[in-house]
Design brief:
Shape: elongated
Strand order of the largest sheet: 1-2
Mean pLDDT: 83
Distance between the termini: 33 Å
Number of helices: 3
Largest sheet: 2 strands, antiparallel
Number of strands: 2
Structural class: alpha+beta
Length: about 80
């Protein structure tokens, strides 16, 4: 999302109005997090998914879809067990 007062030639004003009415920026620990205006829940952006999948794919030495999926599940379970 663009900071207030910043213009963009990449999208039309109609889209900008739609985005501003459906999403808000929330600053947490110096990071801007996009949240849904209605439910106040964070929105996960495509880049976050890509980073997780890419790191798992590299970790399994390009092992394929099922191996990468298993690596993602294991890393999520490991992270959740550490945080408990």
């Amino acid at each position: 999302m663009l900071p207030k007062g910043t213009a963009s030639e990449l999208c039309c004003p109609r889209f900008m109005f739609w985005a501003k009415s459906h999403f808000n920026l929330l600053k947490i620990a110096g990071n801007d997090i996009v949240i849904c205006a209605k439910s106040k829940k964070p929105v996960c952006v495509y880049e976050a998914f890509y980073k997780i999948i890419h790191e798992a794919h590299i970790a399994v030495a390009h092992g394929g879809r099922e191996t990468t999926y298993s690596e993602i599940i294991c890393s999520i379970l490991l992270a959740s067990s550490i945080l408990r």
